[in-house]
């Protein structure tokens, strides 16, 4: 945990950086001041990485002991099929207690893919597809052990998985959602993110950071009889999101409608996130979309170098250049790139800066404190990340990860990310296809 640090600025009168549960260090001196609070976000400050066209390697985490006791070890997964399909498959993958990539077999137990030849992707040929029952049925499985950086993929059909040699063994190449030559791209699929541990029990969330696809929802049952839920998208979610983005494209002339992806038969299949779209197409879409807003908001800075317009802050190990549209939508490039060598202050500031740009809250009343405690201010001004805005509008309870740092929020603020978590869980249910 970093200690509270106060900063002085030239163009911004003061910046206050507050760590978890720290008191505010004093009232702002001007309306243009900015307070950045390091609050307790949903995932404990373990923010999402921005997506790439093909996500290579799950994030490596500290190993956990499978020998420890706890309900998470024997966590039951209930997979409810609400699709009118008998070809729905689930795939459970992540890192085991040794930090090694594993897949769950239908019969139970982990299977460890072999380490491929360096630079050569290798298909996962083991039996890892868990067939769900017919519409309305529940398929119950039990996790073979603790899993970190996990995902439960669900597909109306089958998915192909590959590995590539990583620094500590095989790393995952997830199925394709954009690339037309990837065999999985034509399949309707989605995934839930899942981590279980001795200390924290279960953490799971819905995610639209890569795309909106097969509707998925979550319900978590706890030992004390309480439940949590994140219902996710309705059955018509993909069509509804695409309709909203087409309407927005007519309003501001930006290519929001081009995020809608059809299959080979011209049927609407999924809606890509802006960085996923940009990563594959490599064009200049949204090129100047945020330029005027960045200039109006000013650099969130302590000291500005006139020649480079780069901001630097005392206590932060390096400065921030003005972000481009691609930087803002992806949150992992330009000034929002985070390196292992960056200090705790830098790693905590980046998510909050990028989240505020995506939600367009800097120039709103109360925008001098980030993250703002007024979620009603999100996406109420141009430019905004309208993909994220529309996704939240269509999600049944308006919760679900829609950009890389969508779990950023103030202490006590409403969860935006579709998170369920418990220290004493008994069953996690994944609803496939939206509520019936």
Automatic annotation (TrEMBL):
Keywords: Signal. Residues 1-26 form the signal peptide. Residues 72-434 form the GH64 domain. The keyword Signal applies. InterPro entries: Glyco_hydro_64, Glyco_hydro_64_fam, Glyco_hydro_64_N_2, Osmotin/thaumatin-like_sf. This is GH64 domain-containing protein. It comes from Oleoguttula mirabilis.
């Amino acid at each position: 945990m970093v200690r509270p640090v106060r900063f002085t600025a030239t163009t911004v009168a003061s910046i206050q950086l507050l760590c978890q549960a720290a008191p505010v260090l004093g009232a702002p001196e001007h309306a243009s001041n900015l307070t950045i609070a390091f609050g307790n976000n949903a995932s404990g400050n373990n923010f999402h990485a921005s997506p790439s066209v093909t996500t290579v390697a799950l994030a490596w985490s500290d190993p956990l002991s499978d020998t420890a006791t706890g309900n998470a070890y024997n966590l039951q997964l209930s997979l409810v099929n609400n699709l009118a399909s008998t070809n729905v498959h689930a795939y459970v993958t992540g890192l085991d207690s040794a930090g090694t990539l594993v897949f769950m077999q239908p019969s139970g137990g982990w299977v460890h893919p072999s380490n491929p030849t360096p630079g050569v992707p290798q298909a996962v040929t083991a039996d890892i597809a868990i067939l769900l029952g017919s519409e309305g049925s529940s398929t119950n499985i039990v996790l073979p052990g603790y899993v970190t950086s996990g995902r439960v993929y669900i597909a109306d059909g089958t998915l192909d998985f590959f590995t590539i040699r990583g620094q500590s063994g095989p790393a995952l190449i997830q199925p394709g959602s954009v690339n037309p030559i990837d065999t999985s791209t034509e399949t309707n699929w989605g995934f839930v993110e899942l981590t279980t541990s001795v200390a924290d029990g279960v953490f799971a969330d819905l995610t639209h950071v890569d795309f909106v696809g097969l509707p998925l929802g979550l319900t978590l049952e706890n030992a004390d009889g309480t439940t949590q839920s994140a219902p996710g998208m309705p059955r018509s979610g993909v069509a509804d999101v695409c309709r909203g983005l087409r309407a927005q494209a007519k309003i501001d002339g930006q290519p929001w409608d081009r995020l809608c992806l059809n299959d080979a038969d011209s049927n609407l299949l999924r809606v890509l996130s802006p960085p996923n779209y940009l990563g594959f197409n490599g064009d200049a879409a949204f090129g100047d979309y945020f330029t005027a807003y960045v200039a109006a908001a000013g650099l969130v800075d302590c000291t500005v170098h006139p020649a480079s317009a780069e901001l630097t802050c005392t206590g932060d190990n390096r400065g921030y250049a003005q972000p481009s549209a691609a930087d803002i939508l992806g949150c992992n490039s330009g000034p929002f790139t985070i390196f292992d060598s960056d200090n705790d202050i830098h790693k905590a500031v980046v998510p909050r800066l990028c989240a505020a740009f995506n939600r367009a809250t800097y120039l709103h009343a109360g925008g001098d404190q980030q993250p703002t405690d007024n979620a009603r201010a999100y996406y109420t001004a141009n430019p905004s990340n309208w993909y994220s805005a529309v996704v939240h509008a269509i999600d049944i309870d308006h919760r679900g990860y829609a950009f890389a740092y969508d779990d950023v929020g103030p202490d006590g603020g409403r969860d935006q990310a579709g998170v369920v978590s418990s220290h004493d869980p008994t069953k996690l249910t994944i609803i496939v296809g939206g509520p019936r």
